[in-house]
Amino acid sequence: MIKFDEVHKRFPNGTTAVHDLSLEMPEGQITVLVGSSGCGKTTTLRMINRMVDPTSGTIRLAGKDILESDAADLRRGIGYVIQQSGLFPHRTVLDNVATVPLLLGWGRKKARSRAAELLETVGLAADAGKRYPHQLSGGQQQRVGVARALAADPPVLLMDEPFGAVDPVVRTQLQDELLRLQKDLAKTIVFVTHDIDEAVRLGDRIAVFRTGGHLVQCAEPAELLARPADDFVADFLGAERGLKLLSLSTLAGLPQGPAPEGGRWELALDSARKPLGWRDGDAAADSPLLPVRALRDGDSLLSAVNESIASPAGLVARVDADGVLTGVTARAEIHDHAGEAHISAGAAA
Amino acid sequence: MLELLKNLASWLTSGPQWSGNAGIAHRLVEHLEYSLLATLVAAAIALPIGMLIGHTGRGAFVAVNLASFGRALPTVGLVTLVFLAGGLSKWPVYISLVALAVPVIITNTYAGMAAVDPDIKDAAKGVGLRGHQVLWQVELPLALPLIMTGIRLATVQVIATATIAAYVSFGGLGRYVYDGLAQRDLVQVLGGAALVAVLAVAADLALGGVQRLLLRGRPASAR
């Protein structure tokens, strides 16, 4: 666990980056620090590995004041991932990942085999190790950055807008990968972003900062979205915060009925009873099917609301893990459920 | 003109011209000796200074001003001054040549290190490299291409300028230039100048080879 106790950081030029911050980042969880630029979130992160030292207050890592540790030794025990990956362009990908193990004196052979293992863990092909960072795409470079941070198996991972510079599709992939890794590794992760959607997706807890280094609210995503502490947080979460909250609940448990028969809209199925599309009974017989996006129980309520609006029949097709139709749920049912989810999240918080 | 080139060719290729204490071979060795020693001393002085300025980021203005200062420094004037102050010795030659080479190497070393992406230095520090490890493992390797360029530039300039050794009565290829001028022997002047030029180009090519060797295996982005 990382514990900030009345931490204050004032830079020599007089600006206050972090204002009397007291905050706990629980072990094995992802704590996201979020806020607009200049809010002190990055400074907060960088104080944990002593890239910045606080003006006053204490930061404890596993109970120990970090100022008592040698800065370089401390950093070797903390994974660090930054936005532009910060890989060494003159070293191969494998040697980049082996950096910290080598610093810790593991010996070249052991460090390299560990690095190769990690490249696989972060989803890179083994031959990527022989290449140089600039020969990889931005998304691949970020994966290497994560592998380098994980190389010595540190309990804590600091990530400073690690996915900020990649396109949205790759960003989503990287977020999924991080969540998948975190399931196995259960690191204490501190993650900085200015993207509230990323924060909601990744965070077990989200700390919202305001300009001047003030922590405004720190809560679980559902609580934050349901009950923002003030107008600043509400504005920051945006007008769609109700919908974002829906992204946190799933379809599981929502009742479903049989697919419609005989009406205007019929669900076309293939021989394995997998949905193909909606057939319009009023259209010519050879007209193409309208697209259907069948949802599984694990899909979010937000995607169900979206599909219920997109579906011409006003029905959401539900399938099992194999993609076989299990039933349909009506738009009204989903909307009612969405409203209840919102209310109950607020009540639970 | 054709006559002149013919004379030049026979001057450069005649056997006796190459042998003996005043022969081309001996003058070449002398010239190389002045040049290499001066460049090595200059590098020994300039590299640590350039590295220090580049690593700490302090004193950058010194590096920038040194460049202009070095360019403006009249080498012949300096050699005369040291000669008048210190009397007949090789010191004036070496001091002048070193003074010529130091600014080039400092500014290139500094520029190379200043050009290293701050994000990369930050990451290096952030994963736990100590200051000297950042310098040796990250900053210097990445600055190496520009550092080598500085050393090559300095070497070429020093070889071209080492003719001044003859100006204060010592040897080297400058002997032919100054003697030729004194004797109004244009062929000898041209011969000396051509040899200096060839030597400078050869040294640059050799150092280019060293540079390629040092950077072998690296991608174009880190050269």
From TrEMBL, chain A:
PROSITE patterns found in the cross-reference section: ABC_TRANSPORTER_1, ABC_TRANSPORTER_2
Keyword Cell inner membrane: no
InterPro entries cross-referenced by the UniProt entry: AAA+_ATPase (IPR003593), ABC_transporter-like_ATP-bd (IPR003439), ABC_transporter-like_CS (IPR017871), P-loop_NTPase (IPR027417)
GO MF, one annotated term: ABC-type quaternary ammonium compound transporting activity
Keywords on record: ATP-binding, Nucleotide-binding, Transport
Enzyme Commission number, as recorded: 7.6.2.9
Residues of the ABC transporter domain: 2-237
Gene3D superfamilies, A to Z: P-loop containing nucleotide triphosphate hydrolases
Pfam families: ABC_tran (PF00005)
Family label: Belongs to the ABC transporter superfamily.
Protein name, entry field: ABC-type quaternary amine transporter
Organism annotation: Streptomyces beijiangensis
TrEMBL record, chain B:
Domain ABC transmembrane type-1: 28-207
Locations listed in the record: Cell membrane; Membrane
CDD domains registered for this protein in UniProt: TM_PBP2
Topology in membrane: Multi-pass membrane protein
Gene Ontology biological process terms from the UniProt entry: glycine betaine transport; transmembrane transport
Source species of the chain: Streptomyces beijiangensis
Transmembrane segments: 34-53, 60-85, 91-111, 158-178, 190-215
Annotated protein name in UniProt: ABC transporter permease
Predominant subcellular localization, coarse grouping: membrane
Lineage of source species: Bacteria, Bacillati, Actinomycetota, Actinomycetes, Kitasatosporales
